[in-house]
Amino acid sequence: MSQHEAFDIPLLTPSASPPQEHLPDYFHQHPDQITSQPSRDLIVFRNFDPFRAVDLSLLVIVLYTISTFFLSRSVVWGQTFIVVQAVVWRLLHSVGLGILLSVQSSDKVWTKHFIKHGATPWEAWSQWKSIYNTSLCLTYVSFFLACLQTYHLPENWTVGTTLLRHTLGILLIGLHLWTSVSIHEVLGDFGWFFGDFFVLQQEYRLTYTGIYRYLNNPERLMGSAAFWGMSLISFSAVAFSLALLAQASNLLFIQFVEKYLPVPETDIDEATYAKVVWSTDSEGSRVNKVSETSDDSDSTAR
């Protein structure tokens, strides 16, 4: 007896997946794939489970990245490698994933790929969350290592602005952590992982609570505070340059990626909503047009 027979698990084959041109009908026939959401998503290292392959893979990659800091100190090009590593991860996270989200919003390429091979939209989003979280972690880790290599522990904390720099740096890092936690408390896993780009959700409304009562988009203002904090503590031209790159990348990501949002259900009926969200590339402009005409208070802030 096979494992599928023993546990009564239906086999998924590519032939069982719906045609790409009938994605709206697929969701109407499988409402559980629209509303079902997972639990215990890995957010940085929160909810870490050593029995999950994805969690262990992230831990290994992070430890390997940290090891490059020590292994490269004995070579001439070691410092350059650490800086280039930080730049590459920043560009991959902001530019690379930003382009992927833009394409996903207009043509649903990511979701179509998984459905074509017999998976579900939930599986597509689950894979995206793992990639996004890994990229996010390595962006911060590589930046920290780049700042660490130019940092020197002060011999006298009362000389010049040494104490002030360290105090402001720690405060900025703390502000960044508080902002990130507050954003997740309001948006949840669905908003944190850009769920509106991948799956349909019946209740598509933003409740202005928590930090959003004071800032419409806190990520725009304080999304790079930790990078500036670490650069202040390091106090090097390289660290400030990387912080400037992080700030610019974050603003560009918000400006050109997060505007690609599905249309809220409050503006159109459910059938039209499904058609707009799952429009093809030739209808991609329709998504943007409808989204831009919606009221700003209904836009999903991240």
Summarize this structure briefly.
The protein contains 13 helices and no strands. The protein is mainly α and 302 residues long.
Any overview of this molecule?
This protein is mostly helical and 302 residues long. 61% of the residues lie in helices and 0% in strands. The model is unreliable at 2-22, 33-37 and 262-302 (pLDDT under 50).
Count the DSSP helices. 13
The largest β sheet comes out as: none
Instruction: List segments where confidence is low: pLDDT < 50 over at least 5 consecutive residues.
Output: 2-22, 33-37, 262-302
Radius of gyration: 22 Å
What is the helix/strand order? HHHHHHHHHHHHH
The portion of residues forming beta strands comes to under 5%
- Beta strand count: 0
Which structural class is indicated by helix and strand composition?
mainly alpha
Distance between the termini: 48 Å
Helix percentage range: 55-70%
Shape: globular
Count of discrete structural domains? 1
Return the average pLDDT rounded to an integer: 77
